[in-house]
Amino acid sequence: MAILVHLPSFMAVPITALLREAAPDITVWNGREAAVPEEVEAIIAWGLKPGVLPAYPKLRLVCAATAGVDKLLAAPDLPQDMPVTRIVDPGQQTGIAHFVLAMALRHTRELGVYAGQQRRGEWKRHRGRALSGCRVGVLGLGEIGSEVARMFAAIGFPVAGWSRSPKHLPGVADFTGEDGLDAMLAQTDILVCTLPLTPQTDGMLDRRTLSRLPQGAYLINVGRGEHVVEADLLALIDEGHLSGAALDVFAKEPPAADDPVWTHPRIEATPHIAADPSYELVAQQCIENLRRARDGRPLLNQVDRQAGY
Ligand code: NDP
Q1: Who lines ligand 1 at CB under 6 A?
Q2: Where are the domain boundaries for CATH 3.40.50.720 in the chain?
Q3: 268 Cβ partners below 8 Å, 6+ apart?
């Protein structure tokens, strides 16, 4: 019984050590070189290049080291019936909600404006906006989005959320479907994207959808960069329809050197740091799921391959 850790070394080294410590009965290989292919039953990965998976004939399970599985599901040789699991980490959900809240309050309290004023030696007060008048719309009310919505509601923002199925969260107005999306966008001052990347959500934040937001609305994207058509977003900001955006994720990471997000005065760009999962949890969930797969028991946090998340 063996697990192959197929991750960049900054994650692979600590996760390999944690796996070995937690399950001395399981062989753990860091990287493909030393592994005995016939013994590998589980792979922990973030993405998988073509040709990796077919090398492991006894593979039972692919464990994503993250909450998002878009890169893994895009592997062309991932067998249709291969179970894929993902990380569900309450600590990460809280961390992402804190990050989103920080960006929202930075926007509503105009902290970016004051930072610019300070650099110019300018003492000028702006009248702040009451949170109760600043409507938040959360795209995706899953593990992360529901925590984001809960935190916004807890401090007094009016909150709505959009998901495939209604969620009935306390203090959060439910929207579903295309009509629901348009209706929510029309009454959203801060739009937060916590969606998974699927064929249905790829590129959905384009000129058409973003134009439905009221004048001056602000976007916070912690989902995936591909959700946003960046050229449309920047055009709507430059035209004055949107007031700006905080982007933590990008279609290409890092963005190219000449990508306008680096220098645009109304974009806050961060390097995909909203929150990492706990490596202890990544190791524990993989070990538990390998044992469950061997015993034929239901897996924890199994991805719905049909839905794509
Ligand atoms: P979940 O699977 O728990 O939730 C996804 C939510 O999106 C669900 O509410 C789902 O609806 C909704 N949804 C999916 N497709 C659609 C659609 N077509 N229309 C409407 N709603 C839809 O995912 P998580 O909350 O755990 O993670 C979300 C994403 O966050 C990840 O996939 C990843 O891309 C991103 N992420 C970013 C991080 C960062 O550091 N920036 C860190 C971790 C994750 P329903 O509930 O009805 O199924």
Answers
A1: 66-68, 96, 140-145, 162-165, 194-198, 200-201, 222-224, 248-249, 272, 274-275, 309
A2: 2-89+277-295, 90-269
A3: 103, 106, 112, 244, 245, 246, 247
37: which 2 tokens? 């292919």
CATH number belonging to domain 90-269: 3.40.50.720
The stretches of 188-278 forming alpha helices (DSSP H) are 207-210, 230-238
Q: Whose CA is nearest to atom 3 of ligand 1?
A: 142
For residue range 177-194, what is the model confidence (pLDDT) as tens digits? 999 999 999 999 999 999
Domain at 2-89+277-295: CATH architecture? 3-Layer(aba) Sandwich (3.40)
Run of H or E including 280? helix 279-295
**pLDDT, tens digit, 9 for 90 and up, residues 113-172:** 999 999 999 999 998 889 999 999 999 999 999 999 999 999 999 999 999 999 999 999
Q: Which of 99, 194, 278 to mutate to test the pocket of ligand 1 (most atoms within 8 A of CB)?
A: 194
pLDDT score recorded for residue 19: 98
Instruction: Provide the percentage of residues in the chain whose pLDDT is more than 70.
Output: 100
Catalytic residue IDs:
224, 272
Residue nearest to atom 39 of ligand 1 (CA): 274
Does this model's pTM top 0.85? My answer is yes
Give tens-digit pLDDT for 226-255.
Answer: 999 999 999 999 999 999 999 999 999 999
Distance of CA 257 from the midpoint of ligand 1 (Å): 29
How far apart CA 74 and CA 77 sit, in angstroms, is: 9
